[in-house]
Write a structure and sequence with these properties.
Elements (H helix, E strand, L loop, with lengths): L2 H4 L3 H4 L19 E8 L4 E9 L3 E8 L7 E8 L6 E4 L3 E6 L2 H7 L13 H12 L2 E6 L4 H9 L6 E16 L2 E17 L6 E15 L7 H9 L2 E2 L1 H27 L1
Antiparallel strand pairs: 1-2, 2-11, 3-4, 4-5, 5-10, 6-10, 7-8, 8-9, 9-10
């Protein structure tokens, strides 16, 4: 296990959540903007920041990952005061499995999902639509998916393989008799790690979910605002340095514990 994998790759969870033309900067929302921060309670300092339209409401938190995922993940919501237009990043969801009995037992934790296989983004989307109890309308194209998959594949090494998949669905529901149109985006990132010549392995996946909504017929008109919020996402470098230092020690401690369990 290494620092790159254990630290939450927020660019995967949030950078890839931009729904169209991710390399093109979105126009700032009309009417002015303000900067908002997400505070990490461990160090009591700003970890992440966003720029949102003036007058919008914002809530954000830096929360710890699960027993089978680790790391810190930013969750947030930025909404218009009437609640009819907004964007929300949900907590990351993790699951893991192994054919090593000791590690398999460790992965069976209540804060991890019970899946024991790699899921496609569309399969996880079906799960989310059921959880959110919304009406499915259609799947949307993801034209940049192939590029993201190629970029992820370049990081693969013998005994260490990663994959990424993305799906976007349009759904609808009602708020106070107003029909709301929403796009749900799911990113699924999975990693398989060989445990040596024994044929044993450790697999893990995580899913990032983004929701953005507006009254029916007005979702497209708000896409530039949503993109500008996502593209404004920034990691505080002082916080990152302190967190990296803490995680290096945690990874060493975890590797020592896992090694002891495998030998035992």
């Amino acid at each position: 296990m290494n620092l790159r994998r254990t630290l939450v790759n927020v660019s995967l969870i949030f950078g890839m959540l931009v729904t169209a033309r991710p390399s093109v900067a979105a126009a700032p929302p009309a009417g002015g903007t303000r900067n908002v921060s997400v505070i990490d309670p461990i160090f009591n300092m700003r970890a992440y920041s966003y720029t949102i339209p003036d007058g919008w409401l914002f809530d954000g938190a830096a929360i710890p990952g699960t027993s089978c995922g680790g790391g810190i993940v930013p969750v947030f919501r930025a909404i218009r005061p009437d609640g009819l237009v907004g964007i929300k990043g949900l907590p990351r969801m993790d699951w893991a499995w192994s054919n090593n009995p000791t590690l398999a037992k460790k992965d069976e934790q209540p804060d991890c999902l019970a899946y024991k296989k790699t899921l496609t983004a569309q399969e996880f989307m079906q799960y989310m639509i059921g959880v959110l109890k919304v009406q499915f309308v259609k799947m949307e194209p993801v034209p940049w998916l192939a590029q993201r998959q190629r970029e992820t594949a370049t990081q693969n090494r013998p005994g260490s393989q990663s994959t990424v998949d993305i799906a976007i669905a349009t759904v609808n529901y009602k708020i106070n008799k107003i029909t709301i149109e929403e796009q749900i985006q799911v990113n699924v990132y999975c990693h398989s790690n060989s445990l040596g010549a024994s044929g044993q392995y450790q697999n893990s996946c995580n899913a990032g979910v983004l929701r953005r909504w507006a009254p029916q017929g007005k979702l497209e008109a708000n896409q530039d605002t949503f993109k500008a919020i996502l593209q404004s996402f920034n990691i505080d470098q002082e916080w990152q340095a302190r967190y990296d230092q803490m995680m290096v020690q945690e990874i060493k401690d975890r590797a020592a514990r896992d090694g002891a369990m495998l030998k035992g």
